[in-house]
Design brief:
With 74 residues, the chain is mostly helical. It is 92% helix and 0% strand. The protein has one domain. Helix 1 packs antiparallel against helix 2. It is built from two helices and no strands.
């Protein structure tokens, strides 16, 4: 649900920034705002899930290595 809310907010901000860029003499500020908003959105979506999955992978690898070590020490 939080993802959808963020997506809608980012879409509105980006749309208004791009519309503002179309109507102005200097379009770069609107393009920059739109790009930064989308980059922050992608970064916020990757942050927590990526870290927890990496920790989970590391934990599984450690368990597998311990199990292998136990088998070969006998």
């Amino acid at each position: 649900m939080w993802f959808v809310i963020k997506l809608i907010i980012v879409s509105f901000i980006s749309t208004f920034a791009l519309f503002g860029a179309l109507g102005s003499d200097n379009e770069w500020p609107g393009l920059i705002v739109s790009s930064i908003v989308w980059m922050l959105f992608v970064w916020s979506c990757m942050g927590k899930g990526e870290k927890s999955s990496e920790k989970e992978k590391e934990r599984r690898i450690n368990e597998m290595l311990r199990e292998i070590d136990r088998r070969y020490q006998r």
